[in-house]
Structures are given as C-alpha cells and as structure tokens.
Amino acid sequence: VFASPFGVDRWNISSSVPRKHQNRYYRVFHNLIEKENYFTVFSDIVKYYKVIDKNNLGGINDEYARQHFIIHANESKTKLLEEIELISPTHILTLGNDSFRVITNLLPEHGDKIIGIRHPANGGEKRAKEQIEQLLTKPKPH
User: What is the 3-state secondary structure (H, E, C) of the chain?
Assistant: First the structure.
C-alpha cells in the first residue's frame, strides 16, 4: 500500500464520523480481515514517511511521498522481502496501479502471487470491494 496502512487500528463500523476515510477501508476489507482461516497483514511498500512540515500533516508531506515513491520503494525492498519471507503469503494484494507496477517490478519472483486491487480512494471503493469478494469466493486450488 502507499503511505500508512490507513489507520488500520481505528477501522470500525461504528465510527462517530461516518465519512472518515478509514471507514472506506473497513467497508472494503472487513470481510477479508474477519474471515476465519485467513491471516491478513497490512503493510507499506515504503517503510518510512518523511515529515517535512509537522504543521501541515498531509499536504506537502504527502506530495513529497508521492514524488519520491519509487525511490523510497527501492530503498525499502530489503525490508519488504524480509516481511514476505517471514509471512510466506499466498497472495500479495496491491492497492492502485502505482503499487501494482512497483511491486511487480521489485518482486518479479512473486509475480504469480501479486494481485492488483482498485484503490478504494477517489471513487474506487465499490470496485475494490467487488475484487476482494471475488478473491474470497474463488475456489481454492487442490
């Protein structure tokens, strides 16, 4: 994922702010994270977030992160590979085209596990939810 794992610790169905962005991610991923016999880990491609202006969280800091995403992804490759080796996932889901391209290029040896999911932001919530549901209902190989 790009940037933080979306405040995953704050995802919930009863948030007091109905349009909070974490609720969007909850709606997309709640079936996946609550499904028995599934172990889901949310991680970042880039393992750090540089704060240029602490008084403007988001804004210039997010712009810097977007502009340097590929550079920082390459710098974080070793840690990402360590995570993947430790977890040994059956699937690696990426959110958005940029993340899919970067992960596919960084980790070609895991290409058969990488699945691109529409990013839930900017109007992608419905499609992302459909893609997760398709993944959950897909018959498992024998």
Answer: CCCCCCCHHHCCCCCCCCCCHHHHHHHHHHHHHCCCCCCCCCCCCCCCCCCCCCCCCCHHHHHHHHHCHHHHHHHCHHHHHHHHHHHCCCCEEEECHHHHHHHHHHCHHHHHHEEEECCCCCCCHHHHHHHHHHHHHCCCCC
Rg (CA), the chain: 16
Whether the per-residue pLDDT at 18 is higher than 90: the answer is no
Q: Which one, of 61, 41, 39, lies nearest residue 49 by Cα?
A: 61
CA proximity to 117, closest of 32, 18, 8, 16: 32
What is the number of other CB atoms lying within 10 angstroms of the CB of residue 86? 9
- Per-residue pLDDT of 58-104, as tens digits, reads 788 888 888 888 888 888 889 989 999 999 999 999 988 888 998 99
